[in-house]
Amino acid sequence: MSKAFQATNAVVTGASSGIGRSIAVALAHAGVERLVVHYRVNRSGAMDTADAVRELGCEPVVLEADLSSPEGPQRLASDAFDALGIVHTWVNNAGADVLTGAASSMDFESKLRHLLDVDLTGTILLSRMVADRLLSQLEKRKTTDPPSMVFIGWDQAMEGMEGDAGQMFGPVKSAVMAFANSLAQSIAPSVRVNTIAPGWIRTAWGEETSDYWNERAKGQSLMKRWGCADDIARAVIYVADPENTFLTAQTIPLNGGFDRRF
Asked: Is this model's pTM higher than 0.90 or not?
């Protein structure tokens, strides 16, 4: 991997495990000098991510914030810019896990409201604050290259999927992707905004799921396998690359190619 991100700073929300950790490590490997590792409750995991990026020569800054709380987005935006001074790459990866752990036992309405609070409202409020600060640092000429903001969507959000999961994640992730595209229209050409829309990715839920979902995940991909966290990380590196200055307002499905024969 090239060192396109040499001497830059980055923030990855929800970086204590899974996709967020893989993105943080990939950015460190690509040359990011200082990186904010954000978490909500999994401090141990965040410290493990910090250790992983430190081993690659990147200085980690570990920050806690609950994006579903009224003060969480403001505190994270403020603390991240205070810690780094200049931010070149911001990755909005944080999302509520309602499929595993204690949250999996909640009823549909509780899960939906939690997703709306974290994935949608928290992400939108945080991103607007971050966008203002990114524009401010350009106005003050602290940096000349357009910084990048990356969102994580879902490849089936617009098409729809049956069941409770589709009815929860579909509307929420559709709204996130719509917001990202609208933000891109609002702050271009000063800031680039793109979205990666993953398909079936083997996260904690995928490790524990039934044979049906395992076969479906493989069958709906032309590559005949689950995606993994590193696949998402590589895509984030591509869209956030400081040299990709013509790439903005794009939503890129990352699903191994959807197999229409399934």
From this structure: yes
